[in-house]
Design brief:
Layout lengths: L9 H11 L20 E5 L5 H17 L4 E4 L7 H14 L6 E5 L5 H5 L7 H6 L2 H4 L2 H7 L9 E2 L3 E2 L2 E4 L1 H6 L11 H13 L6 E2 L3 H26 L7 H14 L11 H10 L4 E3 L5 H5 L10 E4 L6 E5 L1 E5 L6 H12 L1 H11 L15 H12 L1 E4 L9 H18 L2 H10 L3
Length: about 425
């Protein structure tokens, strides 16, 4: 049997130590606090440690406290943040040492495969019926959440769109370009990047460090292959030696040539800030970037624009922050209570209004969301949906790590498309 969670917080460890010694100070074991692992607490692990993500989490906690006033929320994540990559490594260490939080956030889809294989998380399919989610969530989403044997191991708190081009129309207008920022093809986009470069815009397209560079590759593959062949790269129906892949990688190399020199030391929000400041005309990033523009009091449609990434109109590149329930925990009822709030209409509205994403539920009133979010709700309901590679929906973590290594090598100066294509082809092996 898996050893139960060893700690919720430092105070929990201290309490456990006191019980083990049968006394704490002058008290006895009988007078010491009861175990913190009861129906009175739920330990939740996320990488949302700062900014709008933390604000969204706080809003979700507020709903949870109203819906389940007898259960205390314990933020069991890596305090001090460190980003999702560092947090995932820390979480993995805890899971391997049989010290799981009650629930933890992960990206829905293939990212969960290793957790499922290692029996770190539980099947929560029954909760879909209990919470009415089979009716509230779209069928296509449930299909993407389900494993081949029909089980579901997470409950999404939101839906994000990855394939978005963020545009500063003033920069385009200044240089005589169409301000809409809409491009049917990458070739048309590259032509305007070249015009901006010649006009003196040092970095027409901004990008951040490693994962934003993988993100840019993802949208480039989607543009040149189309949704069916793009998805085929991850399910095996598209050959990595396909000439369309070669074209996409060549396009990717050209796109990177128009990016900022400090890209390897700049976080994704720093790249967004370049567009906000007018230092770049474009940035390709998911809709979590919305808050960076809103926080600067920029007006959607006037001061900035958000359109599908070049060549990807009619496609919704999907990812979701999704909560799992760990195995080996003492109190599943408290964990289920948190999952109920995550999936509830009130919880999804409160969380997504802040985070910039859209609810997974289809029974919410779109009018209460921002103008961009209303366009995303419409797009998710009618466009072709594909799964994000960079954000865990399309491939397992091990394959993403290999893809990331290939991207880093290519962007570090090799620029060898043949070697790049071979490395990507080998990533699934």
């Amino acid at each position: 049997m898996r050893v139960m969670r060893k700690r919720i917080a430092a105070v929990a460890s201290a309490a456990a130590a006191c019980l083990a010694l049968a006394a704490c100070g002058t008290g006895t074991a009988e007078s010491a606090e009861p175990s913190l692992r009861t129906h009175e607490k739920v330990a939740v692990y996320t990488w949302w440690a700062a900014g709008v993500e933390k604000q969204g989490l706080d809003a979700l906690v507020e709903v949870f406290e109203k819906q389940h006033p007898g259960i205390e929320f314990v933020n069991d994540g890596l305090m001090g943040g460190g980003g999702s990559s560092t947090s995932k490594e820390h979480l993995q260490s805890r899971l391997e040492t049989e010290d799981p939080p009650d629930v933890f956030v992960a990206h829905a889809g293939a990212e969960l495969q290793d957790y499922i294989k290692d029996k770190y998380i539980q099947d929560v399919s029954a909760l879909y019926e209990e919470f009415g989610l089979t009716e509230a969530f779209p069928e296509d989403l449930i299909d993407r959440l389900s494993t081949k044997n029909g089980k579901i191991y997470s409950i999404p708190s939101n839906i994000h769109r990855a394939n978005l081009l963020w545009v500063n129309p003033a920069v385009l207008e200044q240089h005589g370009l169409e301000a809409s920022g809409e491009y049917d093809t990458l070739d048309a986009f590259l032509a305007d990047l070249e015009k901006l470069k010649k006009a003196g815009v040092e970095a027409p397209l901004s990008v951040g460090t490693t994962w934003p560079q993988v993100h840019l590759l993802e949208t480039t593959l989607l543009a040149d292959l189309g949704p069916e062949a793009y998805s085929g790269l991850w399910n095996g129906s598209t050959d990595w030696n396909d000439p369309r892949v070669t074209t996409a990688l060549e396009h990717y190399g050209k796109l990177m040539s128009y990016t900022n020199a400090d890209r390897d030391t700049l976080e994704w929000d720093g790249a967004s800030a370049m567009v906000i400041a007018g230092d770049s005309a474009f940035n390709i990033m998911g809709d979590w970037a919305l808050t960076a523009y809103n926080s600067e009091d920029m007006t959607y449609g006037d001061d900035y624009r958000v359109v599908p990434a070049p060549g990807t109109s009619g496609t919704f590149d999907f990812l979701a922050d999704s909560f799992t329930m760990s195995t080996g925990i003492l109190d599943e009822d408290s964990a289920k209570a948190w999952l109920q709030t995550v999936s509830s209409k009130e919880g999804q509205v409160a969380f997504n209004k802040i985070k910039g994403s859209i609810p997974a539920r289809t029974d919410v009133d779109a009018a209460q969301f921002s103008e961009y979010q209303r366009t995303a709700i419409e797009s998710f309901g009618q466009d072709t949906i594909v799964s994000s590679v960079t954000h865990g929906a399309a491939v397992p973590i091990a394959q993403l790590d290999k893809i990331t290594t290939a991207v880093v090598e290519f962007n570090s100066g090799s620029t060898d498309v043949v070697a790049f294509q071979a490395a990507l082809a080998a990533s699934g092996g």
